[in-house]
TrEMBL record, chain A:
Domain ABC transmembrane type-1: 106-296
Keyword Membrane: yes
Composition-biased stretches (Low complexity): 17-26
Bilayer disposition of the protein: Multi-pass membrane protein
Phylogenetic classification of the source organism: Bacteria, Bacillati, Actinomycetota, Actinomycetes, Micrococcales
The keyword Membrane appears for this protein: yes
Coiled-coil segments on the chain, per record: none
Name the record gives this protein: ABC transporter permease
Region (Disordered): 1-26
TrEMBL record, chain B:
Family of the protein in this entry: Belongs to the binding-protein-dependent transport system permease family.
Protein's name in the database: ABC transporter permease
InterPro entries for the chain: MetI-like, MetI-like_sf
The entry's keywords: Cell membrane, Membrane, Transmembrane, Transmembrane helix, Transport
């Protein structure tokens, strides 16, 4: 699968049918979402992952809460000094405090991931909704375009765009992730809309005289949003990993910017002499990616009534 | 079957054109947004206008539409298609070499590493998936589930760096210090980079790293598919008829479970080619992936575009073949 988002962690067909069944079972008692919320709060994996994401988000939003050091205040004589009192992560190759680097590194990763996810949900969600709802030639065109975007392996497409564009900052990286990443969301959204659009309650709304827009937004969308939410959560993790990978290839963020990808890339050869230079940023990075994926998996199970 | 193949091939043509156009548009948009890539060759020096013009003309970058942001440059796209049809991918900005030469020299390495990754992925992935799926909820099932989640969560470059440093450098150095140890293992299989003396052995570890992510995906897909089929009616019928358990698993369950896996394996070729960029960079394998990454770093756009175009074409053809194979395996597809 050349999609950026590893959707094979999923049983998508089950999920799509579930969203419609959930809608059918709503019948006045607990809704799909409140049931899911109850189940998620009792799921230790989900709780731990969310706490981890909360911690990382607070690093990104308020780095001042975590450290009072300036990551760009470097003393070259301190180069690669091990962790010590006051500098829990030691010093990097240029003698900068590594702990403050790790804290400030959360921000670019998360802003790219969140920006790109919002982008793919907006673009992919809208196109998937239109394709599923209208069918016919609208569906044919959108589905063909999705096929075309999926035939370009993600990493290669990103490499081309970022090489030609030459300006590699948060904006261009987010842009390329959105351009190449919206297709997965569009496909899932289309499937969910297709399975919801001929259900009784939609036909009832139509017979009451509701217009296309109202049916799409008030009746179909709320029931098609569950699989998209799951995929978007997993996408957040994939984008954090993608940003670091692009940085590793030299077409992502560039120093003196702080990012986990840069930290790993710059210190990869010192792994054996100064392992902490690699261990700290990789732990933070993998923890973040893993948390998002586990949250997505837990959400999927909670939103699937068949799993209960 | 014949009609299905013809229809599928006819669908293939617009997809190829569309993908080529997408690549072309990404490139043109990049140039329109930030200007002529030729300037990257001069670093911080300012080239004379005459030099710029001459180089741009030679590299086919002097079309006026490349200065108009958003212009799809249809004319340029037509020229590019004709060039690709004549197997001309342009010339590199820095070395002035034909891009097809560069690709030709590098491709054998990538094919080898991708082959190792693919075999690893297919064998181990399917085996793990089948074992997990047969005893769903058992120890092996949880083991496969946890380890595949971990592999998917670890970016391939992090996995590659850690394996290179720990296994190839640290452990490998210990073995290399021992003169009695067979060299094929210490200097071949455990080499920290590509060694011309051991053209297959030294690509072994890089191949495993390359196949790791797809392996996790394959294992999960096989497991899901097995779990579904183990409960299927025809399997229950087979069991009721008193068939041997081995035959039920091997012939009835496994064969049907592998249908979606085959599709996924074909599509994985694209993942392997994308992953080759990372893996070859880590392990210093002189394949097209490393060339693409190096050219991207030096700003040699025409090499990157050429390599990515070729990779996309290979990927498209592979997808077409897989689709046809899918119809052979699953008759329902043919009569859709």
């Amino acid at each position: 699968m050349s999609d950026l988002i590893p959707s094979a962690t999923s049983d998508e067909p089950a999920l799509q049918s579930s969203s419609s069944e959930g809608a059918g079972a709503t019948g006045g008692t607990a809704s799909l979402w409140s049931d899911a919320r109850k189940q998620l709060i009792r799921n230790p994996i989900f709780v731990i992952s969310s706490l981890y994401i909360l911690v990382v988000s607070s690093m990104a939003l308020f780095p001042g809460l975590w450290t009072d050091q300036d990551p760009r205040n470097c003393i070259i004589s301190q180069s690669r000094k091990p962790p010590q009192d006051g500098h829990p992560f030691g010093f990097n190759i240029l003698g900068c405090d590594y702990y403050s680097h790790a804290i400030y590194g959360a921000q670019p990763s998360l802003s790219i991931a969140i920006g790109a996810t919002v982008g793919i949900v907006l673009i992919g969600g809208t196109l998937g909704l239109l394709a599923g709802f209208y069918g016919g030639w609208v569906d044919t065109i959108i589905s063909r375009v999705v096929d075309i975007f999926l035939s370009l392996p993600f990493l290669l497409g990103a490499l081309v765009f970022l090489t030609v564009v030459k300006v590699q900052n948060i904006l261009t990286i987010t842009m390329v992730l959105v351009i190449l990443g919206w297709t997965t969301i569009a496909r899932v959204m289309r499937g969910a809309v297709l399975s919801a659009k001929n259900l009784d309650y939609v036909l009832a709304a139509r017979s009451l005289g509701a217009g296309n827009l109202r049916i799409m937004l008030r009746h179909i969308l709320p029931n098609a949003i569950a699989p998209v939410t799951v995929l978007a959560t997993i996408a957040l993790g994939s984008f954090v990993a993608a940003e670091a990978t692009l940085t590793f290839l030299g077409v992502g963020l560039q120093p003196p910017e702080e990012s986990w990808g840069i930290m790993i890339t710059d210190h990869q050869v010192y792994f054996l002499e100064a392992p902490w230079l690699l261990i700290f940023p990789t732990t933070l990075l993998i923890g973040t990616v893993l948390s998002f994926i586990l949250m997505g998996d837990a959400l999927r199970d909670a939103l699937d009534p068949k799993m209960r | 079957m014949g009609r299905y193949v013809i229809r599928r091939v006819l669908q293939f043509i617009p997809t190829v054109l569309g993908t080529m156009f997408l690549l072309h548009y990404l490139t043109s948009l990049g140039i329109q947004l930030t200007g002529n890539p030729v300037r990257a060759l001069f670093g911080d020096r300012t080239p004379t206008p005459a030099m710029m013009a001459a180089l741009s003309e030679r590299l086919n970058l002097n079309d006026p539409c490349l200065t108009q942001t958003g212009n799809p440059c249809i004319g340029l796209f037509g020229e590019r298609l004709v060039n690709i049809a004549q197997w001309d991918f342009g010339i590199s900005l820095t070395g002035q070499r034909e891009v097809t030469d560069i690709i030709g020299a590098a491709l054998p390495y990538t094919i080898r590493i991708a082959l190792i990754g693919f075999v690893f992925e297919a064998f181990v992935g399917i085996l793990a998936g089948v074992l997990a799926g047969l005893r769903s909820g058992g120890f092996l099932d949880y083991f496969v589930k946890i380890s595949t989640t971990l592999i998917i969560a670890v970016p391939i470059f992090v996995l590659g760096i850690v394996i290179r440093e720990f296994v190839a450098v640290k452990f490998g150095n210990q073995l290399r210090a021992d003169p009695n140890f067979p060299e094929i293992i210490s200097r071949g299989f455990l080499a920290a980079g590509y060694k011309p003396d051991y053209p297959w052995a030294s690509l072994f570890i890089p191949g495993l790293v390359l196949g790791a992510t797809s392996l996790a995906v394959t294992a999960r897909l096989t497991r899901t598919s097995m779990v579904e089929n183990v409960r299927a009616d025809y399997v229950r019928t087979a069991r009721a008829k008193g068939l041997m358990p081995r035959r039920i698993t091997g012939v009835h369950t496994l064969r049907n479970s592998l249908i979606p896996v085959v599709t996924s394996l074909g599509v994985d070729l694209g993942v392997l080619m994308g992953g080759a960029v990372v893996t070859e960079t880590i392990f210093n394998v002189p394949g097209i992936g490393r060339v693409a990454a190096q050219s991207a770093r030096t700003g040699d756009a025409s090499v990157v575009i050429g390599i990515v175009t070729l990779a996309a074409l290979i990927f498209l053809v592979a997808n077409l073949l897989v689709d046809i194979l899918y119809a052979v395996l699953d008759p329902r597809i043919r009569y859709e």
